Amino acid sequence: MKNVVILGSTGSIGVNALLAIKKLGPAWRALGLTVNSNLKLLRRQIRAFGPAYVSVFDYAAWKEFSGDIPRGVRLLPPGVEGLAAMASLPEANIVLSAVSGAVGLAPLLAAIRASKHIALANKEPIVMAGDLIVQEARRWQATIIPVDSEPSAIFQCLAGIKPGTYNEVVRRVFLTASGGPFYSVKRSLADITPAQALKHPRWKMGPKITVDCSTLMNKGLEAIELQHLFSLEVSKIQVLIHPQSVIHSGVEFKDGSVLAQMSNPDMRLPIQYALTWPERVSSPVKPLDFVKLARLDFLKPDFARFPCLELALCAAKKGGILPAALNAANEVAVKLFLEGTLRFTDIPRVIERVLSACGPVSRLTLAGAVEADSWARQRASAIAENVKKR
Ligand code: NDP
Ligand code: MG
Fold first, then answer.
1. Which ligand is nearest to the CA of 12?
2. Helix, strand and coil percent figures for the chain, each rounded to 5
3. Which of 61, 145, 318, 325 could form a disulfide with 376 if both were Cys (CB 3.0 to 4.6 A apart)?
């Protein structure tokens, strides 16, 4: 029996993961589901999947839910405590981390320290403290399998190569990006509205990552994710805009061979692979038709129009608390943009100012990453206030 816990079951990844579990058959079970506050969908998921455990992060929603708990369901505490308890349930074999943002750090660590097989969609904790998380996973013999399509592609391309030796055999990593909705837009991006940023040309995802795709911050976060998950030098990572999103990323080896992972763009594939790894099982993804596809395009990223990418790559190279501060400042700026109080082009401005206020880079600790996260959030909110007044 495969008992799967889904952190963030009502999100874009969570919903697709539940469909995958259903398709995988009776040996697969959704043991636990967590949400922030979407009780309506949670109740529907409980009826359809019969989880034994549920956690609701938001306190008001948790209170409401605790007044009417469905029969057979055990409600865990609200907040991070419930998430962490869910991630370390003794009966769980697989933990899918699909919450959005830095809130996923504590449950990820809990899953690692319970030596789980972790399917990781939630990239923000890896950006905050990747090296330390990977070390902790090694120590506790937890497996981390990426869900995100690009890290999943690299993971698949590196299969068979001894972990720890990637830098010796890999010359370059091609990290592909669709470019988001504004890549070919020629006019100024200052007046981009949240509704426009939320219309991604290829992928249907949660709001935060969709905005990150439109600023190219998502690609920067993924570069940091690759840096840590595969201990790769950042200078080896080459970002390529690839509008068709068919090559999900690739690796060039020192002998000149390039391996790339390809498929029609469909998150159901990497989600399922992260759950069933090392097995491959059939999936509902439409097969590639190369003749119909006819061409694949690649462009260099435009760092000047999309400064978030450069900011992230720079933070990755410098290390220390910078990636954690970058991630936190980005979360704050994206939230304010979605609320309509910050302009699209002010997102990188806020992040840049937070990064330049960071002190000298020193060795990172987990406590330091958490502290940097909360410092950068306060700083970003204050800077955004000034930027708004301009
Ligand atoms: P969504 O916004 O669609 O879903 C987020 C999920 O997490 C929801 O279940 C939500 O609950 C829950 N959640 C949100 N905030 C909190 C919180 N503070 N505490 C606890 N739970 C919370 O996000 P996505 O599914 O799009 O993305 C999830 C993660 O996966 C992100 O880190 C993203 O970068 C990554 N990812 C996503 C991809 C995609 O295709 N969507 C692709 C690659 C990576 P509720 O519904 O109640 O708000
Ligand atoms: Mg991705």
1. 1
2. 50, 15, 35
3. 325
